[in-house]
Amino acid sequence: MQRRIFTEDHEAFRKTIRDFIAKEVTPVYHDWEKQGHPPREFYNRLGDLGVLGIEAEEFGGGGVSDFTYSLVIAEETSAAGVTFGSYSVHSNLILPYLMEYGTQEQKERWIPGFCSGDLMFAIAMTEPGTGSDLANIATTAKLSEDGSHYVLDGAKTFITGGALADRILVVARTTPFDPENRRAGLSILVVDTKAEGFAVGRKIEKIGLKASDTAELSFDSVKVPVEDLLGEEGAGFKYLSHNLAQERLTIAIGASATAAAAVQHAIAYTKERDVFGKPVAAFQNTKFVLAECSAEVEAIRAIVDRALELHNEGELTVPDAARAKLFATETAGKVIDKCLQLHGGYGYVLEYPIARLYADTRVTRIYGGTSEVMKTIIAKDLGL
After folding, report:
1. What is the pLDDT of residue 113?
2. pLDDT at 176
């Protein structure tokens, strides 16, 4: 179906990203997967392209407030069967926090390096005993007696980009836990990873997203200057809720892109692969499966493109972001599974992009809020 969300500028950007991937990512991607992340200087190359802080024109970014460019990147990386490491967390999840809640002094101190790739950021919400239930966070940050700094203690897990980050947005409890108001007392501290008492623990081995580092982090009496508190003390849960819509849209966009890429990989493979003397694509079952997948991809695109338009207009609600994430990720999983099946045994071999798409996509139904959490949000919006 014809899509109306892309302009000539988007298509010119698409060509730039496609050429960049072909030249600087695809030839070395296998090395990134073995290493567990891209080389540190790769993020400086993304900075040179202007994609790390695309909305932060004042501080050296691209100067466009249009999330459609993130969709272009997702589509091109998925088509090539690669990722940009922790780029999406850095640019799509964290930048809104800094732009919305940072002081002018903080923005001037952090965002130029954010945009250039000299300062890479991660965000630490999840804890060993706390997954989607953010109100149950146990990491604490106590204000010093002289009021000059917080003392941060606790642990985080499943932190994307945590091993290489220079600064980490850490969600911590700055007032004692109140069972009557579990969401109160949470704050966001922007922690310098060079600070004494901070440590990167185990690098978590995953079934997918091999080129994106995921780590456990620990904080042992880490001193965080009060100047590095993001926004107001105690307003952390409100900030997280405000930005979760964009995070979930980002995941939905990725699911849309991977599902579409899977269909294209399956079409190309079944046309060239012969079975019983004719191409796999010539069999009626193959045609019917790909026809189903094509229709499902169009349905994903319809809801994701509309959610993207609403987001660009500042009107995407939390329930609608949940609907987009739920439908896109669940349907993408089904599409990619069917496309892998059409590859036969080669679909299970990592040298084929479909295998990486299959492994990488599974987590989209878990992070950013599980599918079950999305259903709960939607149900509440229905008055149930």
Report:
1. 95
2. 84
Q: How many Å apart are CA 237 and CA 230, to the nearest integer?
A: 12
| Of 199, 194, 214, the residue nearest 85 (C-alpha) | 214
Q: Give, as one character, the DSSP assignment of residue 204.
A: P
Contact present, 196 and 223 (Cβ < 8 Å): yes
Question: What tokens appear for 7 in the block?
Answer: 């302009």
Q: Which residues are catalytic?
A: 247
Residue whose token pair is 């966070």: 137
Antiparallel, parallel or unpaired: β 140-143 and 149-160: antiparallel
**Amino acid identity, position 180:** E
CB distance 369 to 248 below 8 Å: yes
Instruction: Give 320-329 pLDDT, tens digit per residue.
Output: 999 999 999 9
First-last CA distance in the chain: 35
DSSP string for 42-55: HHHHHHHHT-TTTT
Position 254 pLDDT exceeds 80: yes
Q: Enter the DSSP assignment of 5.
A: S
The arithmetic mean of pLDDT across residues 242-264, rounded, is 95
Note whether 321 and 244 are within 8 A (CB).
Answer: yes
Q: What pTM did the predictor assign?
A: 0.91
In this structure, what token pair is assigned to residue 84? Answer: 């940009």
